[in-house]
Amino acid sequence: MEQHEITLGQEVSRRVMAARLAVGLAQGLLLYWLYSASRDVLWPATAPYAMVPLTLVMLVLPVLLISSLGHLKPRQAAIWLGSALLVLLALACHDVWRDAQGRTLMSNWEHKAVYSPSEMVALFSVVFFFIAHALVMAGAQDRRLVAAYDTYFEAAWKLGIQLLFSAFFVGALFFVLNMGAQLFMLVRLDFLHKLLRESWFNVPVICAAFSCAMHVTDVRPAIVRGIRTLLLVLMSWILPVAVVIVTGFLCTLPFTGLEALWGTRHATSVLLGTTALLLVLVNAAFQNGDAKVALPLRVSARMAAILMLPVTLVAIYALALRVQQYGWSADRVSAAACLVVAFCYAAGYVWAAYQYETWLRPISIVNVIAAFLMLAVLLALFTPIADPARIGVNSQLARLAKGRVSADKFDFQYLRFDGARYGRAALEQLKQRSTGADAAQLRSGATAALAMADKDRWQLRKQFTAPASLAQNLTVWPAGAQLPASFLAQKWESLPDQQKPDCLTGKNGKCDAFIIDADGDGKPEVLLIDTPQPGSGQLFAEGAMGGWAVIGTIGYENTACKPLLEKLRRGEFTLAAPRLKELEAGGRRIPFKPPFAPNEECDQIK
User: Transmembrane ranges (predicted)?
Assistant: First the structure.
C-alpha cells in the first residue's frame, strides 16, 4: 500500500496538475457558452440534437478526463474516454428522440424552444459513469479485465470521497467569496458582489475549483484513506440499530398483515430504500474484507445480510400487486429494474451469510457481479432496449384491449405526459379508432389529451372531489347546521393549492366545517380545519358576484389545540372585536400580532 502511494505521487506531477486545471477551465467556459445560449435563446440551445448531447458530454466527460490523468496511459485513456463519449451520445440522442420537450422562451419577438437533458438521464448518467469509471480505474491498476476486490474497493471509495470533498471545496470557496463581498459592501465597494452575480465568472470558477480539489485529493491518498476509514467505522456502528428496527418491522407483519402496507401506495420505494441502507451499512462493516471488526458488528452484519432478502421479497410482492391491479407504468418499470439489482444483492448476501468459515467473504464476488449488472440495467433503461415509457404504454394499451380497464376510466393523461413519444403515438392511434363499442369515447379522450399543454400537467393529475362526495368529507358544526348549497357546488379546481385543505380535493381528506358569521354581515362563512391531523384553518366567504374564496386563516398553533377545537365544536365561543385596532395606510390594513405564541395558553383552556 505504501508503494502505491509513492507511485501515485510520482505519476501525478505538476504537469498533470496544470492539465487538470486547464480541463476544468475549458469545461467551465464551454458550459458557460451553453448556458448563455440557453439564456439568450440561441444555437445550439434551440437545436435538441446539438444541445442535449453537448450538455451531457460537458457535464460528465471532463470529470472522467481529470480523474484519468496520471492514472491511465494515453492509449488507455483514449479508449476509455472514446467509449464513454459514444455511450453519452447514445443516451443523449435517445433522450431527445423519445421526448424532446424544451422550455419556450422569447427571442427577437419570436417564441422558440430551448432544450436540455432530462433530469433522470443527467442523474443516472452520473451514477452509470461513477460505477464504470471505478471499474476501469481498478482494472487499469491491476492490468486485468476483472481486478481484485481490494482494488475495486480502493478505487470506488477514493472516487466517491474525491467527488464529495470537491463539491464541499467549491461550496466553501463561494462561501468565502460571498463573505468577502459582504465585507467590501460595508465600505460601499460592490465590485465583488456584482462579480458573484455574473454567470461568466461563476461557471468557470466552479469547474476550475472542482478540478483543483480533485487534484489535491488525488495526491493525498493517505488523507483520503483516513477519511474513508473514519466514515466507514462510524457508519458500521449504525448497523446494529438498523438490524433491530428492520427485524422488529418484519416480526410485526404476521400480526398487522400487509393491507396497511399496501395502503400507503409507496411501500415499494420505502422497502427498496431499506434494502439499500442495509447494503451500505453491511459494506461499511465488511469494507475490503480484511478490516478487524468487533463481534457485535460481525453478528449484526451477518443478520443484516440475511434480512435483505425478506425485505426485498416483500417489495417485489408489493410491486406485483400494483402491476396486477393497474398494469405497468414508467415508474413501476424503473422500480422493477431496481428490484432486479436488489434481489441480486439480497440473494448473494444470504449465500455469503451462511459461509461461516469466511465471514461474508463471498460479498466481494456479489458486489462485483452486481456492479456489472447495474451498468447493464441502466443502459437498458435509458435506451430503447427497456425504455420504461414504451413498456408502460404497451401495458396500458394491452389492458384496454383486454377489457381490464374501460374507456371511461382509461388514463389518457398518462399517455400524454408520462408516455413520451410512445404515449403520443398511441393517442394518435386511439384518435383514429373507428371500431368497437367505445370507439367514440376513445377518440374523444385521445383528442382531448393531445390538446393538453405541458403546463397543464400537474393540475390535470389532481383528482378533485365532486360536490356529492364533498359533503361526505365534511363534519358540519354546530350539529344540525347545513352548508350553503353554493359552497357544495363550488368548482374548487381554480383555487390555489395552498388554499385548499385535503377535504376539498380527491385525497380522501376530512375536515370540520364551522358555520359562523365572522364579519357580521348576516351571511354565513365556513371555517375548514383538517382532521384528524389538523393543519392551518381556512375561513371561506362568498363574494358579491358568487364564488367562495379564502378571506382569513387560523394558524396551526391554534388548530392543534384540542381543548380549543372541542369548545368550537360545542359552540362555546363568541365573536369579539380585536383588542388592538389595525394600522391602515395607503389602503392597506396591518394587524398587530401578539408577542407570544398562542399555543402556550392551550393547556389553560378548560
Answer: 17-35, 47-66, 78-97, 120-140, 161-187, 199-217, 229-255, 267-287, 299-321, 333-352, 364-386
